[in-house]
Amino acid sequence: MNNLTILVVDDDPVIRRLLEQRLAKENYSVLLANDGSEAEKILKGSHIDVVLTDLMMPGTISGMEVIDMAKNLNRNIEVILITAHSSIDTAVEAMKKGAVDYLEKPINFTELFLRLEKIATMRAILRSAEDLRQAMDVTETNASGTIQHLELTVRDLQQKIDTIESILRDDATDSDSRIGEALNILLN
To answer: What confidence score (pLDDT) does residue 2 get?
Structure first.
């Protein structure tokens, strides 16, 4: 199963049903909204990876506003704008708002699936990078603890060497006693 959950937002029931069937056939988890208000409720209550939203919808929330809403709720949600009224200006505005891409109606499913695969691949790379960063943090923490332990051990050994050297140089004590005392420090 593809591990992307996709919210389809479109006022056209035929488009919604077609997208649902094609996405489900590719093993995506699909949620449906018939307008921006319904999309807002779903976005607030569910984990969504990708939003496919129509540009022009009835009601107070347009496709552009769905982009804003999704990005405000979770900047990691990817949004693909679907429009029958495509223009360069619309595409640029959608990208400025945070859309990852846009598709023209009628939807070319090969293009859609390529874009979704690209999103899934990027998410997997980001997860791997995060896992690697966490592993590096653990390794760094362990290495830091090991270095600290070694520094303490070296300090203790240096103190013993200094003490033994001082004992062995003490001419006021006979040599057997000095050697015995030095050996006692080494063994403890």
So the answer is: 66
